[in-house]
Specification:
- The complex is a heterodimer of chains A (about 110) and B (about 550).
- Chain A has one domain.
- Chain A is flat.
- Chain A contains four helices and one strand; from the N terminus they run ααβαα.
- Chain A is mainly α.
- Chain A starts with 19 loop residues before the first helix and ends with a helix.
- The longest helix of chain A has 24 residues.
- Chain B is mainly alpha-helical and about 550 residues long.
- A two-stranded antiparallel ribbon of chain B has the order 1-2.
- The longest helix of chain B is centred in the C-terminal third of the chain and has 35 residues.
- The chains are: A mainly alpha (about 110), B mainly alpha (about 550).
- At the A-B interface, helix 1, helix 2, strand 1, helix 3 and helix 4 of A face helix 6, helix 11, helix 13, helix 16 and helix 19 of B.
- Strand 1 of chain A pairs antiparallel with strand 3 of chain B.
């Protein structure tokens, strides 16, 4: 059912995203769109429902900060919560279990 | 007008029976079952015949038709249709039979008009779905399947207990709104809460979904949790507690999703996050909120199914879905990549994709209900879901660093299934009316206004900007082969360890007691055949006996005064 890829070929025709130039252009367009979206915030009159929303570009700021906080906290969580891949398997003393999961991980 | 007049779940069970014996090359016929059944049911609509079964003094409402149950029934037909197409490359009868009975049980459960009927389908859901985990046929999937089954059956037993208590109090088994006051109502909430993956009851989901077969997970993601959402909408609409539970559900899983390596487990966490939005909507209980919850359930089945399908395709072709070992797959799986991006855009609620409308309904209802700070939590979760499901899944699987893997494109039937789901995501997002006129409560909501489109785009683009920035700074947590401890630690580690410790302790106590007893016995003079039973030893023994009695009497006296 699950067929591990038999022969990972290292050489193939480079795709559009392999060229760093293209990636740079995509990012440039992306930054431009971000700037446009913030600029629009000052041009368009938004409907305001909540006091928070009065802050200029509230959604942009909130989105950025939310994601940075999310990632930083998640990284801290790793210190406490992260165990190695076979953490639960070791307990069982069940060798079959351990063998099958490790095989899966490496395939 | 055509009237649909058989219980709607019957064709599914009949198809499952057929799937057992059908020659492999005729399996395509099975796809027609949910399709035709769904079209007939849709044509019949509210005219669909209701069924009552009399069991001794009990009247069971086998099929109860209203807009809410119909909405979920349509959804389950669509889901089953897509799942079956996705499964057509399989030669494994077990998954087809389990999948069809599972879908049939879900349809039966949403039409159930009383708790006893519901209980039967509730347990069938548990039983049939477990086989989609077992069908992976690895030792760890067997263990996971058993854990999954135990928790699911526990939910069913809780439902039965609550139903019996409810029946004794009210004399009725009919499913209506329940006030969260009696013990029975709390047990109901517990039973539904297990299947709806409430916090602390959610680990069965994150445990089983990544372990099931590629096809199995797509089935699993569609039915169990949505039946639970349906039941919550039916029994606890407007229950304040649910708003807080829902808000918690939207937030905590995204932290796990960010650091999780198994991409199907990331999706499992993000499924809980989406369920949180629905539970919030149900908790608010206004027409807008309930419609939002139901619409979000509808969309979630399709876009989450789509994402699970793309990861299932990767799993089928590569053999694992570990973010740490994937990357660059867009070169050889371009179509799957495209479908994954559509699913990612939908779950992130990009304008013109399906999640946009339903999520904004719940958010707008949240503001109307005056929960400003919970609204901020939901907004945080919206940004977070884009971060982990919208960017992380497509990026680490299909782009990122080149892993050197060059798998074949997904099988054609999988591509067709993903294509249908993608078209639905875009169609429902762009023309919401095609689904939203079916919503059970009367409410008109206009999602596409300038404010809302702009603010949502700002939120999403700057979440993406944060991702780009963190990646460039090297702050983004790398994908690592690891396990992150969740609540399941209690029953997978702590309780087994505690049990082993108790066993060792009781063994130690026993051996100490044994040696103590032997020592004590040695103190008592032996009156064997060749021992000299003098008066002195007899007296000594009697004294020992009296002292012992006195101690026992003293202890029992002390115990009674305490």
């Amino acid at each position: 059912m699950t067929t591990p890829n038999p022969s990972p070929k290292q050489t193939s025709t480079p795709s559009f995203f392999d060229n760093p130039k293209n990636v740079r252009w995509i990012l440039r367009i992306f930054y431009l769109l971000c700037i446009v979206l913030v600029a629009l915030d000052f041009i368009v009159h938004r409907h305001i429902y909540l006091s928070f929303e009065e802050i200029p570009a509230f959604y942009a700021i909130y989105g950025f900060i939310a994601c940075v906080v999310l990632v930083v906290l998640a990284k801290l969580m790793r210190l406490v919560l992260m165990r190695d891949e076979h953490y639960y398997d070791k307990q069982d003393g069940n060798n079959d279990d351990l063998a099958s999961t490790s095989k899966e991980g490496e395939s | 007008m055509l009237t649909y007049s058989i219980p709607a779940f019957l064709p599914f069970f009949a198809a499952a029976a057929l799937a057992l014996v059908l020659p492999h090359r005729l399996r395509y016929l099975l796809i027609l079952v949910p399709l035709i059944n769904g079209v007939l049911l849709y044509a019949s609509g509210l005219q669909t015949t209701e069924f009552t079964v009399s069991l001794h003094t009990l009247n069971l409402l086998l099929v109860n038709v209203d807009k809410l149950s119909l909405m979920f029934a349509y959804l389950f037909h669509i889901a089953c249709f897509i799942c079956l197409i996705y499964a057509m490359h399989l030669k494994d009868r077990l998954q087809l039979v389990a999948g069809l009975t599972y879908a049939g049980s879900a349809v039966g459960a949403v039409f159930a008009g009383d708790y006893l009927t519901l209980f039967v389908f509730w347990e069938l859901l548990a039983l049939t779905s477990a086989f989609l985990v077992f069908a992976r046929r690895t030792a760890s999937a067997q263990a996971t399947g058993l854990r999954y089954l135990m928790i699911q059956v526990l939910s069913g037993v809780a439902l039965l207990v609550a139903a019996i208590m409810y029946f004794k109090q009210s004399g009725s088994l009919e499913i209506t709104t329940i006030e969260l006051k009696t013990t029975a109502s709390y047990i109901f909430l517990f039973a539904f809460g297990i299947k709806a993956a409430f916090p602390f009851l959610h680990t069965w989901l994150t445990d089983a979904y990544p372990q099931a077969t590629p096809v199995g997970t797509v089935f699993l993601s569609a039915f169990t949790t949505k039946v639970a959402i349906y039941m919550l909408a039916r029994t606890f609409p407007g229950e304040e507690l649910l708003v807080y539970i829902g808000a918690a559900m939207t937030c905590f899983p995204i932290f796990y999703a960010v650091i999780e390596n198994d991409l199907r487990k990331v999706l499992a966490y993000s499924l809980i996050n989406q369920l949180g939005f629905m539970v919030c909507g149900i908790g608010i209980g206004t027409a807008l909120a309930l419609n939002g919850a139901v619409a979000h359930a509808f969309n979630d089945v399709i876009f989450k199914g789509l994402l699970f399908m793309t990861m299932g395709a990767v799993l089928t072709r590569v053999g694992h879905v570990n973010g740490s070992d994937l990357g660059g797959l867009h070169k050889t799986m371009p179509k799957t990549t495209l479908f994954c991006i559509v699913g990612a855009a939908s779950i992130s609620a990009f304008p013109l994709f399906s999640g946009f409308v339903s999520k904004s309904m719940v958010m707008a209802a949240m503001i109307e209900a005056g929960h400003e700070y919970l609204w901020l939590m939901l907004l945080f979760a919206s940004a977070g879901v884009f971060h982990h499901a919208g960017i992380k899944i497509p990026f680490f699987a299909f782009f990122a660093h080149d892993s050197g893997l060059r798998p074949k494109e997904a099988p054609t039937n999988m591509l067709i299934a993903m294509g249908i789901a993608s078209i639905l995501c875009i169609a429902i997002g762009s023309y919401p009316a095609i689904v939203y006129h079916l919503l059970p409560w009367d409410n008109s909501y206009q999602p596409y206004d300038l404010t809302h489109t702009l603010t949502q785009l700002q939120l999403l683009f700057f979440s993406a900007l944060a991702f780009v920035w963190l990646n460039k700074q090297g702050l983004y947590p790398p994908e690592l082969r690891s396990v992150n401890i969740d609540v399941e630690w209690i029953y997978r580690k702590a309780i087994p360890n505690l049990g082993a410790a108790m066993f060792a302790l009781s063994n130690a106590v026993l051996s100490v007691a044994k040696s103590g007893f032997i020592a004590a016995k040695a103190l008592i003079p032996n009156k064997g055949k060749d021992a000299d039973a003098s008066a002195a030893t007899m007296t000594y023994r009697m004294v020992l006996g009296f002292v012992l009695l006195a101690i026992v009497a003293f202890v029992s006296e002390l115990a009674s005064t305490l």
